[in-house]
Specification:
This protein folds into 5 domains: 2-78 and 654-679, no CATH class; 89-223 and 617-645, 3-Layer(aba) Sandwich (Rossmann fold); 227-324, Immunoglobulins (Immunoglobulin-like), CATH 2.60.40.10; 328-535, Class I glutamine amidotransferase (GATase) domain (Rossmann fold, 3-Layer(aba) Sandwich), CATH 3.40.50; 540-608, Immunoglobulins (Immunoglobulin-like), CATH 2.60.40. It has 13 helices and 34 strands. The strands form 9 sheets. It has a 7-stranded mixed beta sheet, with helices on both faces. The protein has a 6-stranded mixed beta sheet with strand order 7-6-3-8-9-34, sandwiched between helices. Strands 26-33-32-28-29 form a 5-stranded mixed beta sheet, with no helix packed on it. Helix 2 (38-74) runs antiparallel to helix 13 and helix 3 (110-123) runs antiparallel to helix 4.
Length: 680
């Protein structure tokens, strides 16, 4: 047991007053002289015993009544982990304004419900207490207020809006610990207000500083209904104006009920260009292929939206970007006129209106600017100088494409030490001479082959008699294997670009590859795939993250980043060997971000929510409370919050019971005292 108002405890000394008065004014029977005293003596003994018993009961009653009235003011409680109500309170409220606070409930937005509970907590503060509001999305922007500063708290709560970034739980906990450690107040409390739907809470661990009471205040319903667009996958990577493009929409249903015929809509450049309906099973996933066609070229902004009224509308839309080139600019570097003719014939067969081909000899290309090209084709180049190796590697790292064909006279050792090593390819181990080897099993879902053949069909593989024995590294993908286990085509991601290496030279001596029906379309699609910049890792952003952008600029330009809601940020340039470097601070809002230099859009980025972490059910609050050192759990209702917080803070108070006992003692004392007077 503890006492919440210990200042009144010294008054318990007043309980000795009835005892002192009793001994000072003890009742004595008067002495009366009679001739015969035998009968009176017996009567006196009986009366004396009765009066003594009443006096003892009266003494006990008055003593208990005096002690009871003192205890009423001292407010005893059965349990308490704190210093008592007489001590002032330092309260830090960690309020969830991150992704999950955008949940919509029957009672309104979760962010508003959390704000109402925070306001109710402030109402429990008394004179001398201090209240600090710590937003989970931005703990550094906390706001403190003392009792009576209602305007500060109201303004802080009104400014809290859901931010589509993960909660910074660890940083918020550290902020609260720091604030409480510096506080001179004895009662220190941390209260976390959240829906606890985010899976971040499943692993959150924290040991508050000693002497701190931690409470959890779950807000919102136990269960959520949510259908989300998990991702939009571009199935067609070879994009051309006026040609169909396939997108795959992937949906997740977190509800225990299936969703039937939800409507999917694709928007490109602000216009809806495709629709489809989809059934999603309960607690399951589903995907849908949608075909769109762009009649314009350039950097295009798109999104996919589902029309579903659920608890979390933020993930009902997902953004993406497309780069539809007006032309495919190819620099073909060849060693002889035959190879040049083979390349030109393959790339002008049906694609002349799309491919802008510039051919050059191996002796002249090394000093040529690569800025105007999307992809470089090296066909039969025997060796590359150190300067050209570096320029070509930087071109690929910035997002350009590179396609390599060896020659029968290639200096494999020099290429292995130079260009191949700089790009990350393993050195070749020599030449293969076979009687004619075909291809092994090809994965036709690879972007180079996707949509190239009818369902169930497969290419007729050419025979290869001479080829370079390529060694595929751990970061390489074998696109086309040979039947004998060697590699015919290897792909490698290099920075933001791609490099493709063929094993067979473009020569009749190497086999019938250049005469096969697969050669021309495979060459074109390989070049287009290598140049496809929409697969650059930097094109897709996640909210809550920071990014470094490096653009292939020769001189410093101040860039402007435009947000989806009209925001503008000035990005100062930083010169690097790879180009101009720009730093993007924390991305907050889902949508399309445009990077402009001199009013020209150089890049577009699609920002979406991080990988889906929203749960359909609340995290295990009991388990979370144990991980936080047996934290208390408060009820959501603001009406009962004050009472529950007092009970959790101080335990069960006994003053009402003691007050009732005091009244009973007064009544008993009155009755006993009146009976005593009547007997006198």
């Amino acid at each position: 047991m503890t006492f919440l108002q210990t200042i009144f405890l010294p008054a318990l000394a007043a309980a000795v007053i009835p005892l002192a008065l009793h001994f000072l004014s003890r009742f004595r029977l008067p002495v009366v002289q009679f001739s015969s005293l035998e009968f009176l003596q017996r009567l006196q003994k009986r009366q004396s015993r009765r009066l003594q018993l009443r006096q003892i009961i009266l003494l006990i009653t008055r003593t208990l009544a005096t002690a009871a009235i003192v205890l009423v003011f001292a407010r005893p409680a059965l349990q308490s982990a704190g210093a008592g109500a007489a001590a002032s309170v330092e309260m830090a409220v960690l309020i969830d304004d991150a992704i999950a606070s955008a949940v919509q409930t029957r009672d309104g937005a979760l962010s508003r419900l959390c704000a109402e509970n925070a306001a109710a907590l402030f109402e429990t503060m008394e004179l001398g207490d201090n209240f600090t509001l710590v937003p989970l999305s931005q703990p550094a922007k906390f706001e403190s207020a003392s009792t009576g500063q209602d305007a500060i708290v109201k303004e802080s709560l009104a400014s809290l809006v859901p931010r589509c970034i993960p909660p910074k739980t660890a940083q918020a906990a550290l902020t609260a610990d720091t604030l409480l450690a510096k506080s001179p107040r004895t009662n220190r409390e941390i209260i976390i207000i959240s829906g606890f739907y985010d899976s971040y809470w499943d692993t959150f661990q924290w040991q508050p500083i000693k002497g701190t009471r931690v409470f959890l205040l779950p807000t919102g319903p136990e269960q959520l209904q949510n259908l989300a667009v998990d991702s939009v996958v571009l199935r067609s990577t070879i994009l051309r104006q006026g040609q169909p493009v396939e997108l795959e929409a992937r949906l997740t249903n977190n509800d225990a009920k299936s969703v039937e015929k939800t409507l999917l809509s694709v928007y490109l450049a602000g216009e809806r260009i495709a629709q489809a309906s989809l059934d999603v099973p309960a607690k399951g996933r589903a995907s849908q292929i949608l075909t769109i066609t762009s009649n314009t070229s350039g950097l295009l902004a798109g999104s996919l939206r589902i029309d579903d009224a659920d608890a979390f509308p933020v993930d009902n839309r997902r953004y993406f970007t497309l780069f539809v080139p007006e032309k495919l600019n190819v620099l073909a570097v060849t060693t002889d006129s035959l190879t040049q003719s083979i390349v030109r014939a393959a790339l002008t067969a049906g694609t002349a209106d799309f491919v802008r081909l510039e051919s050059t000899e191996a002796a002249k290309w090394e000093t040529k600017s690569l800025a105007e090209f999307d992809v470089v084709l090296l066909a039969g180049v025997a060796r590359v100088s150190e300067g050209a190796v570096e320029r070509l590697a930087e071109f690929v790292e910035r997002g350009g494409g590179l396609v390599l064909f060896p020659s029968l006279e290639s200096d494999l050792a020099a290429l292995g030490r130079g260009l191949w090593r700089r790009l990350g390819f393993s050195p070749a181990t020599g030449m293969l001479a076979t009687g004619g080897v075909g291809w092994g099993k090809i994965e036709l879902t690879h972007p180079i082959f996707y949509g190239m053949f009818e369902p169930g069909a497969a290419p007729t593989p050419p025979n290869t008699r001479l080829a370079v024995k390529l060694a595929a590294g751990p970061n390489d993908e074998v696109v086309i294997p040979m039947a004998d286990g060697n590699s015919f085509l290897i792909e490698r991601q290099v920075g933001s670009g791609k490099a493709l290496m063929f094993a067979a030279p473009l020569s009749p001596q190497a086999g019938d590859f250049i005469f096969s029906g697969i050669f021309a379309p495979l060459l074109f699609r390989s070049l287009a795939y290598a140049a496809a910049r929409e697969y650059s890792p930097g094109q897709n952003w996640q909210t809550g993250a920071e990014y470094i952008l490096i653009l292939p600029l020769d001189r410093a330009h101040e860039a402007v980043l435009e947000g989806p809601e009209g925001e503008r940020w000035i990005l100062p340039p930083q010169s690097t060997p790879s180009g101009m470097r720009f730093e993007v601070k924390e991305v907050e809002t889902p949508g399309i971000y445009n990077l402009r230099i001199d009013d020209k859009i150089l890049a577009r980025y699609a920002a979406n929510l991080p990988p889906h972490r929203l749960r359909s059910t609340r995290s295990d609050i009991t388990a979370l409370a144990k991980r936080l050192g047996s934290a208390g759990i408060l009820p959501e209702s603001p009406q009962n919050l004050s009472k529950a917080l007092a009970a959790a803070r101080y335990g069960y108070e006994l003053w009402k019971t003691i007050a009732a006992a005091f009244i009973g003692l007064l009544i008993a004392e009155s009755i006993i005292a009146r009976a005593k007077k009547s007997e006198k």
